[in-house]
Specification:
alpha/beta; 8-stranded mixed sheet; 38% helix; 14% strand; globular
């Protein structure tokens, strides 16, 4: 166990230091959120974190949209962290002098609607019944997630964001934001994402949901907080985690190496024989300690439903109304969200006359690359944001 001095030294490596999660209640009666799938929801509590200072003109804000199982804790440390002293999930990218420079930018990250890290979701208390929503929570879409993000932005007094950034499901949110609220963002950065989930992606989500629902402890979603389908949820995570990796990254990290011994055990089909098996079990075990099974069901389904072309009639119609500059990046080893899908998005943006930059990055780490390859992101995002920042300064000078 680390000493307090060692913890302090670890936390000092974070650019933003100690942070805290803020809570705000939006969509209060009678102004409930009208859901894309029908019905209403409210009030909605939103958990979010901010880093840096908002300018008096409120024109330096960057909004981060997290991926499927992420949360609002994108950077820094909590003061009451345990001995692991774990930083926010994009900590290396956020802070003074870093890519998302908090001496210059005001960075926002919020837990999504339907989540389980402070924002209203299936595990939250339904004010009408005094009991958790569970499966009484309404079906949600990416469009609904953006309605909440947009409302939080307005609550903070921000009319237009300097940039919206996201990878995977976060990237889908960026695209929906550009389509749904085209005037609310100056630039958009989409990493390892697509305008729709592939049939293969839907298939993996379906298997994960089935693993959860067939766990006897799922109890039709009526499990108590802290209980529930731990084995099913862990299995769902193990399945999903495989899709986030690449064949090359698995070979590099594990190969066919055995766990804890040099030869096959030949012992009644042991659950763990290879290192890669042990790794997946660890990922599943760690996941159930922080995530809710019902939230996983709702958010994977929202991901399945997302289809920008179907929703708006075409990609051109979806994106034609925004003046945002776009940065689109794919990874050559990502087989869940492929370069082909990114290029389809780029072609649509070019067709409707948008300013778009595209790059396929090389990485052995598959879909998870946007969470791992920080130096690549620094080289790519830093100048893009600087250009957006400078153009905003030029426009402010030119205004009468």
């Amino acid at each position: 166990m680390a000493t307090q001095q060692e913890l302090s030294e670890i936390r000092q490596q974070s650019g933003v230091g100690f942070v805290e999660t803020k809570l705000v209640t939006l969509f209060e009666s009678p102004h409930y959120l009208k859901l894309a799938g029908g019905g209403e929801l409210g009030p909605i509590q939103v958990a979010y974190e901010t880093y840096g200072e908002l300018t008096e003109a409120k024109d330096n804000a960057i909004y981060i949209c997290h991926a499927l199982t992420g949360d609002a804790h994108a950077a820094g440390y909590y003061e009451d962290d345990d001995e692991k002293a774990k930083p926010g999930w994009w900590d290396d990218l956020i802070g003074p002098g870093r890519t998302l420079d908090t001496d210059k930018y005001f960075v926002i990250c919020a837990n999504v609607l339907g989540g389980c890290q402070g924002t209203t979701g299936p595990g939250s208390i339904n004010p009408q019944t005094g009991q958790p929503y569970r499966l009484g929570f309404p079906v949600i879409t990416v469009s609904d997630l953006i309605e909440v993000h947009s409302a939080l932005t307005r609550h903070l007094g921000i009319d237009q964001l300097l940039a919206v950034i996201g990878g995977s499901l976060g990237g889908m949110q960026v695209l929906e934001w550009a389509a749904q609220f085209p005037d609310q963002l100056r630039s958009a950065i989409c990493l390892a994402t697509a305008t729709q989930l592939s049939a293969q992606g839907i298939a993996f989500n379906a298997v994960g949901r089935r693993a959860i629902k067939t766990d006897p402890e799922y109890k039709s979603g009526e499990y108590e907080k802290g209980a529930g389908p731990r084995y099913g949820l862990a299995l769902a995570r193990m399945i999903a985690h495989i899709t986030y990796l690449s064949d090359q990254s698995i070979e590099m990290k594990f190969g066919r190496r055995l766990q804890d011994h040099d030869d096959f055990s030949y012992d009644s089909l042991p659950e763990v024989e290879f290192q890669v098996e042990s790794y997946l079990h660890y990922q599943g075990k760690r996941f159930v300690e922080r995530f809710d099974a019902n939230s996983y069901l709702y958010l994977t389904r929202a991901m399945d439903y997302f289809d920008l072309e179907v929703q708006y009639g075409s990609l051109v119609k979806a994106l034609k109304n925004t003046d945002a500059r776009f940065l689109i990046a794919s990874y050559d080893s990502d087989w869940l969200f492929t370069t082909t899908q990114s290029k389809e998005l780029v072609r649509a943006l070019i067709e409707c006359g948008k300013h778009v930059s595209f790059i396929e990055l090389k990485s052995p780490f598959g879909h998870d690359s946007f969470l791992i390859e920080i130096k690549q992101l620094q080289k790519m995002i830093t100048p893009f944001l600087e250009q957006a920042y400078q153009s905003r300064l030029v426009e402010s000078v030119q205004k009468p």
